[in-house]
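Weekly sync, protein design subgroup
Attendees: M.S., D.O., the rotation student, P.L. (late)

Item 1: inverse folding check
M.S. brought a backbone from last month's batch and wanted to see whether the design step gives back something sensible before we order anything. D.O. pointed out we never logged the input encoding, so this time it goes straight into the notes. Structure tokens as presented (250 positions):
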């Protein structure tokens, strides 16, 4: 990577990903001692990378164990098979045969229950795999933008005090947004990103807490990136005064 000295702030993402060469690493390490904003940014990039990596790990649903135990508890065991004894007759024989039939029916019902549970588990596993693959793709894309040779960064501060950074790569036509110190949005609310194209604000994704997200949409012809507080499901147009409206680096 070759960056002009005036762009040293833009190296925070690549530094956090160990994507700098030795000379750039030494220069940026010295820069960190005197730039609090970059220290915060590098710390946030490290935390975000860990969170994105953690997103690829999936645990089985908490209710799965209890559902399995409940299903096992409902299975009636068959009576022991007797050998070498006379075949019983009369009422006792009929009762025992009825008990065997009931036990078989219970076993079949339990088998059907387990079959349904297996299907549910398979569906859950497929969904978890899809989420894992998507999280990995997002991580790869974010990392690619931050470490791009043509990465450019702009810094801003939202009206609620959050420190923000947007990093763009013209070659990849992608943008990444980072926020530090973002207050909790409150119940039923979330932070929504916007790309400004002339006089039009287009939805560009969400950020729910401190972290780094890939900006949705095409930043190539956008002039600014905005941040507003919206209902949790999002809005087609901003409904509140922007907390941030920063120029996208070209």
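Designed sequence read out in the meeting:
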């Amino acid at each position: 990577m070759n960056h002009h000295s005036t762009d040293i702030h833009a190296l925070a993402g690549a530094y956090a990903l160990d994507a700098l060469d030795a000379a750039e690493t030494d220069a940026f390490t010295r820069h960190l001692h005197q730039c609090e904003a970059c220290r915060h940014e590098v710390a946030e990039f490290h935390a975000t990378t860990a969170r994105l990596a953690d997103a690829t790990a999936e645990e089985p649903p908490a209710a799965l164990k209890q559902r399995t135990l409940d299903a096992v508890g409902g299975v009636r065991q068959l009576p022991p098979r007797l050998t070498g004894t006379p075949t019983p007759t009369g009422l006792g024989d009929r009762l025992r045969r009825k008990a065997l039939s009931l036990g078989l029916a219970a076993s079949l019902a339990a088998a059907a229950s387990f079959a349904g549970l297996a299907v549910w588990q398979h569906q859950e596993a497929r969904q978890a795999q899809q989420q894992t693959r998507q999280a990995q793709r997002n991580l790869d894309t974010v990392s690619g933008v931050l470490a791009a040779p043509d990465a450019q960064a702009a810094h801003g501060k939202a009206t609620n005090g959050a420190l923000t950074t947007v990093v763009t790569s013209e070659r990849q036509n992608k943008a990444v947004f980072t926020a530090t110190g973002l207050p909790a949005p409150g119940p039923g609310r979330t932070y929504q990103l916007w790309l400004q194209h002339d006089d039009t604000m287009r939805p560009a994704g969400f950020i729910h807490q401190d972290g780094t997200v890939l900006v949705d949409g095409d930043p190539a012809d956008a002039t600014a990136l905005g941040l507003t507080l919206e209902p949790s499901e999002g809005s087609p147009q901003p409904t509140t005064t922007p907390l941030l409206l920063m120029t996208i680096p070209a």
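Discussion: The first strand starts at residue 152 and ends at 157. Strands lie at 152-157, 163-169, 174-180, 189-197, 200-207, 211-214, 224-231, 244-247.
Action: P.L. to compare against the previous round before Friday.
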